[in-house]
Design brief:
Length: about 350
């Protein structure tokens, strides 16, 4: 099975390839230019109000904060904030690339009613309008991206805010150099290309994604990118919970087992017992007809491990979209749904 430059050019009608190649630059820019000072006193807790390609930033922040901060960070992907998050003690970060995500706007309007401290992040739209009308701190990210392709601008703006507030530690200086090296290894012309090889193995298969809880945002990113870029199903679950139930699923239906490939994400940051559970589960499931894919993280910190897997997954989903003869950028059904909702 081939993945030629000609195949990529034919299917990649809106040139997602260039966005993937330039992802490291997209990450560096907001990290060096986001808010230079903390706009509010240290909050008791933080909640990220966002969906899809925007909300994933909050997913990543929440696990990074759990490792590095005494300030709890949560994500809400709904129309309404949880009751405990209403009021002056909870900082609400309303994050929507388009600025018109109706769930995020609904949570933002609720936060205004309850007098939460608020920071808004978007490119444009109603969220920018609300921020200006209420003089909320506002970070405007560049135009021209799909939300899922703007992760660098969205996440590193968030990280910089929390770093300035001394909630998260600074990112190591060589982090972006490592990211550039990872990306170059996945270029179409690269030899022994891991992203291509995984995409070929996943072609016409169903990916079942497993990791410990620390890597759960990477699994979420893989699942959503396989949905949007590859137009294919993927499912995810985390350990240790999976060892109490999900491992029993590998019997029926037989046609599903034959069409599925478990993908294990291994981190050196996991609890040693979680790592042991992952190892044993791979031994058990390896006997199944489909085999397994086992991926080991790179990087010295949890943030680096997460972004190694995120970068890899973005390229895998891109190549799998090409193999499926799909334009990775196109999202017709999402656009139709939004149109019918009046968005």
């Amino acid at each position: 099975m081939q993945l030629s430059i000609e195949q990529i050019k034919t299917a990649d009608k809106q040139n997602m390839l260039d966005i993937l190649k330039n992802f490291a630059s997209q990450c560096k820019e907001p990290y060096s230019s986001a808010l230079s000072q903390t706009p509010y006193p240290a909050p008791k807790q933080i909640i990220f109000a966002g969906m899809g390609g925007s909300g994933i930033s909050g997913d990543i922040i929440s696990v990074i904060a759990s490792e590095n901060s005494e300030t709890p960070c949560f994500v809400c992907k709904d129309y309404s904030l949880p009751n405990w998050a209403r009021g002056k003690k909870t900082l609400v970060v309303a994050i929507s690339y388009s600025g018109n995500t109706e769930e995020t706007i609904s949570m933002l309007e609720e936060a205004i009613v309850h007098k939460n401290p608020i920071i808004c992040i978007s490119n444009n739209g109603k969220i920018e309008q609300i921020a200006k009308e209420n003089t909320f701190p506002f970070i405007k990210v560049p135009a021209g991206y799909l939300p899922r392709c703007a992760l660098g601008h969205l996440f590193f703006s968030c990280h910089r805010i929390l770093e300035t507030a001394k909630i998260l530690p600074p990112i190591k200086p060589d982090f972006f150099i490592k990211m550039e090296n990872w990306i170059e290894r996945f270029f179409p012309e690269s030899n022994n290309n891991l992203a291509k090889n995984i995409a070929i193995k996943l072609h016409n298969k169903i990916a079942l994604l497993y990791s410990g809880n620390k890597l759960s945002p990477a699994l979420t990113r893989w699942k959503t990118q396989l949905s949007e870029n590859s137009k294919t199903f993927a499912f995810m679950n985390t350990y240790p919970e999976s060892s109490h139930n999900d491992i029993m699923s590998w019997r029926h239906p037989e046609w599903f087992i034959k069409q599925s490939i478990p993908v294990f994400f291994v981190s050196c940051k996991e609890h040693k017992k979680v790592s042991r559970q992952l190892d044993i589960s791979q031994e058990i499931i390896f006997k199944k007809p489909s085999g397994i894919i086992s991926l080991t993280s790179e990087g010295d910190t949890l943030l680096e491990e997460l972004f190694y897997f995120i970068v890899l997954g973005d390229w895998v989903s891109f190549y799998l979209g090409i193999l499926n003869n799909e334009n990775p950028t196109e999202i017709a059904e999402i656009q139709l749904l939004k149109q019918k909702l009046g968005g």
